[in-house]
Amino acid sequence: MPPKRVAIVTSSTRSPRLNPTITQYVYDVLTSDPIIPTNHNETLDTDPRHITLELLDLAKQSLPLYDESVIPARLPASDPTPHYCKAHTRAWSTVVRQYDAFIFVTPQYNWSIPASLKNALDYLFFEWKGKPAGIVSYGGRGGGKAADHLRGVLTGLRMRVVGTAPGLPVKFTGLPVGVLSEEEEMVRLDERDLVGWREAGVEGMMRNLGMELVCELDKV
């Protein structure tokens, strides 16, 4: 049995972005925890609890502002992909259907989530329905309001949202101003923020989130 695939989603599409850096941080924390049964080998894995964590960036999905003429919740539940009108929706549906669970890493914009994340979620329905989901938010005070809003949206999509939702206060890391090259777009974290998160127990919360997702996947 292949490992269950869990996508860690970069939810912001702005440039420059801190989001990919924090998504990578979440990935590194979860894959370094020996308690979470991750498997990143290409060999056959017979342990049903094993998961593979993968990065998924919304900026690379080429999704315009929602423009589907069909209602996702009214498509055939077993195979909605071919019934979308737009090629970009069919491509997005195919991507999402590959994953068994999701961890959404989101900044807080004006007490809510980025439009890019809401837009990507709204394109689909059955591709999300019933799958476990975790939330990691960040912002000046940790992004708790964005996490609350996102939990409501994911619940509306009938996802099984786990209880632990780490919030990362970003106090020292700043975004550069101006146009950056592609290599420079991934903003580096200020070490003081990393230390603050560790001291606040954020990494432990992330590991709890990871194990809650594993437990939810066991139920499928």
TrEMBL record:
Domain NADPH-dependent FMN reductase-like: 5-164
GO CC terms of this entry: cytosol
Protein name, as recorded: NADPH-dependent FMN reductase-like domain-containing protein
Domain of life: Eukaryota
GO molecular function: FMN binding; oxidoreductase activity
